[in-house]
Amino acid sequence: MERPQPTVQVDGAAIRTRRKELGLSRNECATAAGISGPYLSQIETGARRKMRPPTYKRLRTALQIQRDDHRLLAPPPESQHRKDTDGSHRGAGRPHPE
Fold first, then answer.
1. How far apart are CA 87 and CA 6, in angstroms?
2. Which of 93, 4, 5 is closest to 56 using CA atoms?
3. Model-wide pTM > 0.85
4. Rg of the chain over all Cα atoms, to the nearest angstrom
């Protein structure tokens, strides 16, 4: 039996925000990341939430995000609704998907 491909859960809103900060159109960003415009649209709107690590790495590079910067990743499920007393999400030290 084959093992399923590993995936990375991403935050589509954070991806869209970063793309717009850089002044990139959806198609410009998709082309730079080696993915299709419709696929990037699905990621940004949340219709798709998972990417394979190589695809995530290319998107991160296109969006000029360093390897140790996790802002494009979705928070771990246990931290989505709970916050520390200082207002930051728990699980900030999540491992990087590479």
1. 31
2. 5
3. no
4. 14
* Greatest extent of the chain over all pairs of C-alpha atoms, in Å: 46
Complete DSSP assignment for 26-66: HHHHHHHHTS-HHHHHHHHHTS--EE-HHHHHHHHHHTT--
Dist. CA 85–CA 58, nearest whole Å: 35
pLDDT in tens, 11-55: 999 999 999 999 999 999 999 999 999 999 999 999 999 999 999
Closest Cα to residue 10, out of 38, 46, 34, 64? 46
Name the DSSP letter for residue 81: S
Q: Give the DSSP H or E segment for 8.
A: strand 8-9
Report which residue type is found at 83: K
CB 12 within 8 A of CB 49: yes
